[in-house]
Amino acid sequence: MNKLPLDIQIQFFKVYNNEISVADFERWLYSKKELEQLLDNDTYIDLISLNYKDRHAMHEMGKIIDPFLDFGKFEERKLKKILTDLIDRTDDFAKSLIDTYELYCLGYLFFDNLGFGYGLTFSEDFWDYSDWENLTTKQKNDRIDRIHLGVKREAELVLIWLDKEKIVPTGETNDLGHYQYIDKRTNSERKLRTVESIEIEENKEALLTTKTISKRGDSEKQNNSTFNQLWARLTGKRF
Questions:
Q1: Contact at 8 Å (CB) between 77 and 98?
Q2: CB under 8 Å to 154, separation ≥6 — which residues?
Q3: Interatomic CA distance for residues 118 and 200, integer angstroms
Q4: Which of 156, 2, 157, 138 is nearest to 68 (CA)?
Q5: What CA–CA distance (Å, rounded) separates 141 from 156?
Q6: CB distance 171 to 74 below 8 Å
Q7: What is the pLDDT of residues 13-66, one digit of tens each?
Q8: What is the predicted pLDDT for the residue at 193?
Q9: 69: helix, strand or coil
Q10: 3-class DSSP state for residue 132?
């Protein structure tokens, strides 16, 4: 089945990723007459006939339009937005840093240093995201200041891998629901590196080596309650 032109796919990706409102997407959809020529008549009619005010609209739209979308491109766009948030310190910095850990747990193992290093600590400290939102602007900036240099360095590296197609998301998942990707990195690039001066607790920094990463991983596996909460949160969320 032929995929839609990328510029059109991006509009669907934006609404899937909550970058635009459903109302804005609906207005775009009705105005994009080109779709009528790109899709067969039945598919086009089904698409514009949906009630986009219904809370199940995105799910129903997916059943119609997903075969015409390249979800490898969707994943690439999603990942690049997360990395850009971290590099540029956008308002979504905290959310995106936590996302790197969640995505690491869901199969994107190239997020080992970002997600399992920096993101895990943030996830532990701000499991209830309202705890982050309730901080003052100064408190948020102080917290980000302590880790931004390292986070930025790691995010830029992953972005280079994506740009050079050393990491190629496929948009597919395996039987466990883990994201699949093509990994063209060298063994040296895949090696788990030492992440320096990661904040572990408020007003405390520590050197996180490969050894301590392993210890934290063992500790996490033993905490079934936390794992079950994470799994429920992840499987109930669409990125």
A1: no
A2: 113, 114, 117, 118, 195
A3: 9
A4: 2
A5: 20
A6: yes
A7: 999 988 899 999 999 999 999 999 999 999 999 999 999 999 999 999 999 999
A8: 65
A9: coil
A10: helix
> Which ranges in 66-136 belong to alpha helices (H)?
71-88, 93-105, 120-125, 129-133
Amino acid at 156: E
Tokens 């990195």 correspond to 185
Q: What is the largest CA-CA distance in the chain?
A: 62
The pLDDT assigned to 97 comes to: 96
Q: In whole numbers, what is the pLDDT of the chain averaged over residues? A: 84
| Residue at 10: amino acid letter | I
Residues found in the chain: 239
CB atoms within 10 A of CB 25: 20
| Cβ pair 81, 128 in contact under 8 A | no
Structure tokens at 35: 């779709």
* Residue 206, pLDDT score: 37
Q: Where are the beta strands (DSSP E) in the chain?
A: 167-173, 179-183, 195-201, 204-208
- Cα separations in angstroms, 136 against 45, 92, 142, 145, 151: 49, 15, 10, 14, 21
Residues 6+ positions from 221 with CB-CB distance below 8 Å = 227
**Over 90: is that where the pLDDT of 67 sits?**
yes
* C-alpha R_g of the chain: 20
pTM above 0.90, yes or no: no
